[in-house]
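Exercise: predict the structure of this protein bound to S-adenosylmethionine.
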Amino acid sequence: MKEFWEERYSEEDFAYGIEPNVFLASCKEHIPKNCKALAIADGEGRNGVWLAEQGCEVTSVDYSQAGVAKSEALAKERNVSVNALCADLTTWSWPEEEFDIVVSIFAHFPPGVREQIHNNIMKTLKPGGKLIMEAYHPRQLEYKTGGPPAAEMMYSVDTLRDDFQTGKILMLEDLDADVSEGKYHFGQGAVTRLILQKQMK
Ligand SMILES: C[S@@+](CC[C@H](N)C(=O)[O-])C[C@H]1O[C@@H](n2cnc3c(N)ncnc32)[C@H](O)[C@@H]1O
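Solution:
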């Protein structure tokens, strides 16, 4: 899969555009000023750069070198600073209780890996910190407008409720939405959205 992403991001255009994900951009009220934010599987950096523009201190992680290079270029062009790391999230040393916000946008992992990543998200959030997530719902297979080719890589409300049992769910829903982001997310689709808060100690 890593080679797949290297190839996709080696194109000159930004695969998912340079604007932030629409759901993330609608969540400003959940993003405190001067907070520490982690954008996982951040691709070419559109979401990490937007978080930096909101005043966050941003760590952006993706295992595609080409993606990370484009994140750095986008941050420079927008005159913001992003700590863009090229790392595999399955082996990365997730810092404990480090981030106020974790953003996971179309970060799809297979069963087994998915639970591991989601546990690590909870570990890396500070108590009271929030996760903002949007992912394709398995119904997306009917739309064929982007996303992974297999239902097991997509997340339903039940899947996310199971994965995040220890957090406080502030919002969890699936819906049909227009997802028009660059060349590879191209129109009406089915998504699941989650806003979750890690319990205070
Ligand atoms: C659909 S793209 C989404 C990119 C970005 N979040 C966005 O919305 O523009 C999925 C991303 O997951 C990254 N990815 C997949 N598995 C990964 C892993 N194990 N570690 C780090 N990144 C990974 C890919 O490189 C790719 O950039």
